[in-house]
Structure formats: structure tokens, C-alpha cells
TrEMBL record:
Residues 107-129 are annotated as: Disordered. Keywords: Membrane, Transmembrane, Transmembrane helix. This is Uncharacterized protein. It comes from the Bacteria. Residues 112-129 have a biased composition (Polar residues). The chain crosses the membrane at residues 7-30, 50-71.
Length: 129
């Protein structure tokens, strides 16, 4: 997964998480408002009571899930870097072994030719003598 795709996925998950928390706790906030309706004189007081009781829970859950997503993305980044490092090392080993095989092949051809390096053909198409 590319970094831009991962960022979009994380943003979408965060938006979905907040919407789910609001929808799942919205009825609890409204219940608190209705319970404190007679005791409070203003909407601000009613809403403040509801937010202190249920809003704190929403905030704590959102903070916990957000932190978990950040920690997960950090470890995913470390894992991707490790995979990239392993691929780079594997590619370098392959290149070195291919170079060694190539050199061995050239030496073998040289020994078959009587210890002279293999001659290159001329551009005119004439075979070397």
C-alpha cells in the first residue's frame, strides 16, 4: 500500500470512528440533557452536564483509538522500511552473484580459448581470426 493510499485510509478510518462515536453516544448525550432538564435553567447548563458525563467518555475513546491508529501506522512504517531494506540487500546479493558468475564464465571461456581473452567481433560482420 502506497503512503498516499495509507494516509487516505487512516483519514477515512478516523472520520468513520468519530461519526460512529457520535452516533452511538448521541442518544446518551440527549438522555443526559433530558434528565437534567428540570434542574438546569439554560441550554448551556443542560448541554454542559451532558458533555461532562458522556462527552468525556467520547473524548477518551476517541483519544485512545486515535493513539492506537498512530502507533499502528508507526509500526507499519517500520515494517515497510525493513521490507525495503531486505529487498535492497537481496538485490545487491543477486547482482554480486551474477557478476561473480559472469567473471567465472569469462575465465572459463578464456581457458577454452587457450588463455587468451575472448575476441570481440568487428562491426563489419567479419569473423575474428
Amino acid at each position: 500500500m502506497h503512503s498516499r493510499q495509507r494516509l487516505l485510509t487512516i483519514a477515512w478510518c478516523a472520520v468513520t470512528m468519530v461519526a460512529t462515536m457520535l452516533l452511538s453516544h448521541g442518544h446518551l448525550v440527549m438522555r443526559e440533557i433530558m434528565q437534567h432538564w428540570p434542574t438546569e435553567e439554560s441550554w448551556e447548563g443542560r448541554f454542559e452536564n451532558a458533555l461532562y458525563t458522556q462527552g468525556g467518555l467520547m473524548f477518551l475513546a476517541s483519544l485512545t483509538l486515535g493513539t492506537a491508529m498512530l502507533v499502528r501506522s508507526y509500526f507499519a512504517k517500520l515494517k515497510d522500511e525493513e521490507i525495503a531494506r531486505r529487498e535492497r540487500v537481496q538485490r545487491e546479493q543477486h547482482e554480486r552473484s551474477a557478476a561473480v558468475r559472469h567473471e567465472a564464465l569469462l575465465e572459463r571461456l578464456g581457458s577454452l580459448n587457450g588463455n587468451s581473452p575472448p575476441k570481440k567481433s568487428q562491426a563489419s560482420g567479419v569473423r575474428p581470426r
